[in-house]
Amino acid sequence: xxxxxxxxxxxLLRASVALVTLCLFPASAFAQGPCPxxxxxxxxxxxxxxxxxxxxxxxxxxxxxxxxxxRAFDLCRxxxxxxxxxxxxxxxxxxxxxxxxxxxxxxxxxSLDLDGGAVGPLSSLTLFYEEEFQVPSxxxxxxxxxxxxxxxxxxxxxxxxxxxxxGCLAIDQTLVVEIFTPDGSAGGHAFxxxxxxxxxxxxxxxxxxxxxxAADECGxxxxxxxxxxxxxxxxxxxxxxxxxxxxxVCSPFIRSDADADGATNLADAIAILDYLFIGGTIPCNDAAxxxxxxxxxxxxxxxxxxxxxxxxxxxxxxxxxxxxxPTVDALECDAxxxxx
Length: 340
Description:
Helix content: 10-25%
Number of strands: 13
Order of helices and strands: HEEHEEEEEEEEEEEHHH
Shape: elongated
Mean pLDDT: 87
């Protein structure tokens, strides 16, 4: 599986899509459930123009390698969403064939892109939700991933913090929806994203944002805009159904600067201990939640001291600069003098 030049790659991929779609995929797909009724207007980054076409994939002519498909959603500027939202369902479209007529794993991931704009680099993405679904054969048509019906946090990397709540993003942060198809070569699985009919869909005017793709086996180690890869008509269908989860009222702060003096040092750990054990006050509870678990307890000064004196990892954002808390929790920030 090599990216041997975009022209050759394009011809191989398009031939593979046509061959697999016509010869391997059944005429009818598993009737998965509909998305739940939600209070928000579904985010539709691209129209569902029929008939769907086939898309880029890193594959060996049939079975796929690890493929990663991304879209960024600027909730405020592109969709006018300023509240917290609870993501309930992702609707995509694809062709898939599973060995022996069974299923194959497909994962939905939700991340925050801390520098906004184009998706990536990967180091700027903060994963906050992941769910694995077992997907049957699907004949180039829409498929609903209803969140909460698969296996949440399948690898345990979120350690119980997985949440579908997002909102109150800083102006330079975006929601990133990712569809990850783990390597299907050993199991003989095929998977190709569907795209809106290219004859009816103009990438320059008919989609909100851009579509991104990565596949290590084909030398694409970071998310790349599909247009830059020579596939401008590859526009991922990733509709987002959501519920309004309440007003977004936030203040900027610096996590770890518990006394709000603009510096992170031993005095902040002492301020948290004073608050916990002798009735001291802190101006911004969010800033003192060093491990960002939504609670103020002894673990917070311990984590901070580890960072200051034992080369432990830095606190989660917003850090070291002022920013908005990307995590939904019950803590508040009444005032923070060090941030404008």
